[in-house]
Structure formats: C-alpha cells, structure tokens
Amino acid sequence: MISNTINEILNEQINKEFYSGYLYLSMSAHLKELGLCGFASWTRLQAKEEVEHGLKIFDYIINRDSFVTLKQIRTPEFEFQGITSIFNRILEHEQCITRAVMEIAQKAEEESDRTTLNFIEWFIAEQNEEEEAVKNIIKRLELFGDDKVALYLMDKELSKRID
Ligand code: FEO
Questions:
Q1: 156 alpha carbon to ligand 1 midpoint, in Å?
Q2: Beta strands in 11-107 (DSSP E)
Q3: How high is the mean pLDDT in each 10-residue block of the chain (163 residues)?
Q4: Whose CA is nearest to atom 1 of ligand 1?
Q5: CA distance readout (Å), 27 to 24, 57, 149
Q6: Is the CB of 93 under 6 A from ligand 1?
Q7: Packing angle between helix 114-144 and helix 37-63, nearest 10 degrees?
Q8: pTM recorded for the entire structure
Q9: Which numbered atom of ligand 1 lies nearest the CA of 94?
C-alpha cells in the first residue's frame, strides 16, 4: 500500500493527465477547423496518449492496494491564436506536467517509496521526450511559419504519426 500523501498526489496526476487529453482534443478540433489536418491528427493522438498515461497511474494505484479517487476535469481552453501559439502553449503545459511528475518523484524519495520512484521514472523520461518533440515543432514553425508551402509540408509530415 502507498502512503496517503503519495496516493493523493498520484490521484491528482490522473486528473492532470486526463485534463491534458482534453486540452489536446480542444486544440485538435481547432486545428481541424483551420484545415491543418496533420496537426489536428498529431494533437488527437497526443490526447489518446495522455489518457493512457492517466490509466497507467490508475492501474498503479489499484495494484498497490490503494484508492483511486477521480476528480472533476476542468474545461480546457478553446480559443487559440494561431499555430505557433498553440505549440508554445503545449510546451508551457508539458513543462508544468514535468514539474508535477518531478514533485511525485521528490515525495516518493522523501518517503523512501522505491516502487513509486521506479514507476514514476518512466513518466520523467516520457516528459523529456514530449518536450523535445514539441520544441522541435516550435523551432520549425518559427523558421517557416509564414511560409504556406512549408506549413503544408509540415502538416503532411505530422499526419504520418501513427501512435
Ligand atoms: Fe502525460 Fe504530456 O503528460
């Protein structure tokens, strides 16, 4: 069984992951409206991945004979100011999630909860990968964002993501 502190922070993290899914879905809908189907597909797949992250924590809590307490998921943003600002917003959001994951690791370390520490390390690596991928997209958007042909090619490239 895990401690109350760890249990609570993990339940909060489930909510953060599901909220991330909502945020990506909201962005996906907006991008689809703009006709950027590749970007829309990329963010939609990311939403699915976020729900999977939430479920991974959900299963972990249950496997440790502890309690899942699902909280209300807040309404995501739905007004955005263009493609580059959407990806800047994604980066800002993911950095916030990284801090939350680090906090879980910190608490697990304080409590010498090696199992949770080991579990959360997967999320730390995942966050690093996500931030890198988003930074890469932002870099290219900043370089080519005003060029419609380059944007079209990027959209086509992002549409190739399959999971
Ligand atoms: Fe699962 Fe992007 O945080």
A1: 24
A2: none
A3: 96 98 97 96 98 98 97 94 94 98 98 98 97 97 88 95 86
A4: 50
A5: 5, 24, 22
A6: no
A7: 170
A8: 0.95
A9: 2
